[in-house]
Every structure is written in structure tokens, then in C-alpha cells.
Design brief:
heterodimer, A: 116 residues, seven-stranded mixed beta sheet, globular, B: 113 residues, mainly beta, five-stranded antiparallel beta sheet, 11 strands
């Protein structure tokens, strides 16, 4: 089946530094990737939608300059958390839309970011 | 404003019995609904989905029921197995070319042996 590989699975960084999270579609081309954030015991909140070769579309309240999204190829999308602060600590998950009739979506395994 | 609501944060059932997970939504523009299973520190795994033009979809032990007039859907798992223990998320997609999903907060299902 369609697999999205997300790395790293866990990362700890110092305040003020930047962290890059990668999502790769391994056996299909992902023209659209979604980036979510999940706080403990909360739902997955959509942060942005990235389309290959164009600028990402951010959800209301998400800082574009803080969460940089790049989708330069059909198999790779990256999320960079810039100047990270402790409140950015969260679980980040990417998802790709599958071009199948049932509107399938496949998710990465997530990245646990801890900013200290 | 929570457009997809899972009002039960947790549910505990005995192995072999039926698990019923509920989901309510407020946006009448939703035209597709999906259920995902999620373990801690992992991404969600797709379980089953249903189009708004249907009222039932079945796949093995999993059945999803949709009541459009009540804006309510439910996931039935029967028989429940200990391996089903996980957080279950209900998600909804709006019609048109917008493929964004809106998720509920999830329900933690525990199936006791």
C-alpha cells in the first residue's frame, strides 16, 4: 500500500534553533501533502496544505514564517519549525492524499518535537 | 468551534462484545467521513469510510453507520479484540475540491481480555 515515511520520529532541540521534518511518499507521487499538529488528548489540527511546486496554504492562526513548508518534488515535503520555542513542542504528522476513488489519505508516523 | 465531535473520550468493552464509537458533526457540507485508528507516537491508520450518499458501509468486523438527518455517525466493531485497543478518530471532508480533513478529538477504546 501507499506509504509515507516521516523523519525524524523524535527530536529534542534547544529554544531558538530550527528543526526540519521530512515526509516522503515511497511508492506514489503525492501532489498534495497536509501537515497536522496534535496536542495531548486533542484532535489533529490541520496546519497547512502543501502542493508540489507552489506555495503552501496555511490555516488561520498558523504563522507562515514560523512553520516553513516546502514541497519541491512529488515525493518530498518538509516542515521547518524556525526559532523553536517550548510551546512548539507537539506531535507533528504529515499526510498525503491518495488519488483513489475513496478519498484515501495516508499518514506518516509522526514526529515528537520537544523544545527545551 | 468543533465541527466534528467525539463526546466520549474513552470507552471500555469486554473482548468479544461490540464496541460502538460515536461521532457528531455540525457542518452540512461534509460529504465524506473516515475513521482512523491511532496508537501513541504513531500516525493514524485508515479503517473505514463512508460517503454521505450512503448510510452504511461494512468491512469485516468494522461497520460505519451514517445518519445524515441527525448529523451522526458511528463505528461498530464486532467482535472486539484486545488488539483493537487504540484511539479512534472520526474525520470529515467537505465537498468540492477541498480535500482537507477535520478531525474529532478521538475516543480511547480499551478492549479487556
Amino acid at each position: 500500500g501507499a506509504v509515507v515515511s516521516q523523519h525524524p520520529s523524535r527530536v529534542i532541540c534547544k529554544s531558538g534553533t530550527s528543526v526540519k521534518i521530512e515526509c516522503r511518499s515511497l511508492d506514489f507521487q503525492a501532489t498534495t501533502m497536509f501537515w497536522y499538529r496534535q496536542f495531548p488528548k486533542q484532535s489533529l489540527m490541520l496546519m497547512a496544505t502543501s502542493n508540489e511546486g507552489s506555495k503552501a496554504t496555511y490555516e488561520q492562526g498558523v504563522e507562515k514564517d514560523k512553520f516553513l513548508i516546502n514541497h519541491a518534488s512529488l515525493t518530498l515535503s518538509t516542515l521547518t519549525v524556525t526559532s523553536a520555542h517550548p510551546e512548539d513542542s507537539s506531535f507533528y504528522i504529515c499526510s498525503a492524499r491518495l488519488l483513489s476513488a475513496n478519498y484515501g489519505y495516508t499518514f506518516g508516523s509522526g514526529t515528537r518535537l520537544t523544545v527545551v | 468551534d468543533q465541527q466534528v465531535k467525539q463526546n466520549s473520550p474513552s470507552l471500555s468493552v469486554q473482548e468479544g462484545r461490540i464496541s460502538i464509537l460515536n461521532c457528531d458533526y455540525t457542518n452540512s457540507m461534509f460529504d465524506y467521513f473516515l475513521w482512523y485508528k491511532k496508537y501513541p507516537a504513531e500516525g493514524p491508520t485508515f479503517l473505514i469510510s463512508i460517503s454521505s450518499i450512503k448510510d452504511k458501509n461494512e468491512d469485516g468486523r468494522f461497520t460505519v453507520f451514517l445518519n445524515k438527518s441527525a448529523k451522526h455517525l458511528s463505528l461498530h466493531i464486532v467482535p472486539s479484540q484486545p488488539g483493537d485497543s487504540a484511539v479512534y478518530f472520526c474525520a470529515a471532508k467537505s465537498g468540492g475540491s477541498n480535500y482537507k480533513l477535520t478531525f474529532g478529538k478521538g475516543t480511547l477504546l480499551t478492549v479487556n481480555p
